[in-house]
Amino acid sequence: MSQDPLVIFTPSGKRGHFPVGTPILTAARQLGVDLDSVCGGRGICSKCQVTPSFGEFPKHGVTVEEGALSEWNKVEQRYDDIRGLPKGRRLGCQATVQGDVVVDVPPESQVHKQVVRKRAEARDITLDPVVKLYYVEVEEPDMHEPSGDLERLVTALEEQWEIKGVRADLHILSTLQPCLRKGEWKVTVAVHLGDEENPPRVMHVWPGYHEGTVYGMAVDLGSTTIAAHLCDMSTGEVVASSGLMNPQIRFGEDLMSRVSYSMMNSDGAQEMTTAVREGMDALFTQIAADAEIDKSLIMDVVVVCNPVMHHLFLGIDPFELGQAPFALATSDAMRLRASDVDLSIHPLARLYMLPCIAGHVGADAAAVALSEAPDKSEDLVLVVDVGTNAEILLGDKEGVLACSSPTGPAFEGAQISAGQRAAPGAIERVEINPVTKEPRFRVIGSDIWSDEDGFAAATAVSGVTGICGSGIIEVIAEMRMAGLVDAGGLIGSTEQTGTDRCFADGRTNAYRLWDGDEDQKPITVTNGDIRAIQMAKAALYSGARLLMDKRGVDNVDRVVLAGAFGAHISAKHAMVLGMIPDCPLDKVTSAGNAAGTGARIALLNRAARAEIEDTVRKITKIETAVEAKFQEHFVNASAMPNSSDPFPILRTVVELPEPSFNTGGGDEDGGGRRRRRRRG
């Protein structure tokens, strides 16, 4: 008897088998997928829009054929005729399962909207943007000294502002003469001041004195989220910020899955390029609307991203990045027109992409280096940008080393049984009483702890929906400190731990974090969850340890946690798990969205662009994939905090019980420990 088709939802990763003919909305509800619907599945509200993906998905182990969903029907056609459905979208209440399918739930179809935490950090930046406004008085035309209006404008810019060699495009020529005459030969000119590749260029002309301003956009293009900050180029102020899920997630949550998708599907790379460009352009439109500005006033864009996103955004197949020696098409900074990547802002707007450091260490790491300046540090600093792919920098004035580690999406709630992305209702803070073993927690959207009066009322709308990345870090670390999980990652039984919150779960045990209520199921932490976090944190620590080996040190002076996720990690909990090297807790700080800050620095200070290009050339790149010691460090780092490194500083402030719950169950115990051979 053949098995029912497999339905996989992204970005949640939830999956299940459903009979042919099952509506996608029904499958989503049965799996607990966050898919909105108001009209009860009658095709009226359109809240349940989804995007099916087709082709080969090696990570999911499926090939999705064109007929995986039922054909477009009259209800969808009627809705499309009246209101319009975006290309590729289906209504989840109308599309039914016909075969194995991967279905993406876009942000606007999710009930619990993700909280994109890549906010703009407060930072003093020396304001010297590449696009500036200049008021000039232009000589009127003269019969005795004939010359073109543009030539006289260029002369005025040189004489009055010492800007030499200014050029202009046809777009400017078509509007220049009316502006000059309306302004009585006085105009305000937006000039892109150029760089080593491009001369200064007129971007826009206004008649008379223009009291307005122009804008730039600093973009952190991550594999999971795209965050952008709209900046006033005359003041440096962040006018508006927003973010959205990277639409490429439906092709794979991690970078290598997307590389595989491009390898397995002939149009895969182009599909992903189109998706990310459309997503970014939609984000620009949204931010401009939020700020109530004309989108055409955005004249400069700076983008930072990892190497795979770099290639896919530029329309370059990332095939070579999927295999040794991980060659980039180019590692240099890119200077483009925004229209080259389909951004519909000012027609002459420019785009600058910071240089990549190496095949797996991208422009986002370069932006972190620009923001945190490890090359100017007196003490030895470890900078960790925590994400799906962690970028790690170690250095001081003597030099900087860099590498990346494939941590995967577990830190962001993926691969976790009750995991979810950061959204209202997600558990983000956890404490466990070491005596009673009873937990308490806080969810996003409320400052009230679960054992305090008013918690139920405060979370009535959002509910308690799952655990986000910072929550899973804290709960596992708290379980370790409370003696509920041993150093190898095994959860104890009821009898071993003295609490019925630990209960049998197949061949291993699980911990019940929340009892649930009449509307929602209990939330538990399983041994599989702990295993996923062990693998992620071991990769992170191993990368850092490898750089320390190369530098010849066993300790660092301080640690900086960067990235949207890094900003929400508790230093103590991260160290209890062994995510980062042993260090005084007061020397572990958060830099927030350092990559986004680096992008803003490059946007608002043109000298910073040359500075980071020079810095990147001096950074020593370490490729973890070819380093023999990486695997050794990885094995040691699988323990919590570590089976080799003793973490003496941590143990002066935190008491770590040393139970052992390994009952000899072999290597399938879910905790990642192999049965040890008995000696002698």
UniProtKB/TrEMBL annotation:
Q: What class does this enzyme belong to in the EC scheme?
A: oxidoreductase
- Sorted alphabetically, which PROSITE patterns does this protein's record hold? 2FE2S_FER_2
What CDD domains does UniProt report for this protein, alphabetically?
fer2
Which of UniProt's keywords are assigned here?
Oxidoreductase
| Annotated region (Disordered), positions in chain | 657-680
Residue ranges occupied by any 2Fe-2S ferredoxin-type domain in the UniProt entry: 5-109
Task: Tell whether Oxidoreductase is among the UniProt keywords.
Answer: yes
Q: What is its EC number?
A: 1.6.5.8
Q: Which superkingdom heads the taxonomic lineage of this protein's source?
A: Bacteria
Q: SUPFAM superfamilies recorded for this chain?
A: 2Fe-2S ferredoxin-like (SSF54292)
Q: Which GO terms describe its molecular function?
A: iron-sulfur cluster binding; oxidoreductase activity
Protein name (database record): Na(+)-translocating NADH-quinone reductase subunit F
Organism the protein comes from:
Aliiroseovarius pelagivivens
Q: What is the lineage of its organism?
A: Bacteria, Pseudomonadati, Pseudomonadota, Alphaproteobacteria, Rhodobacterales
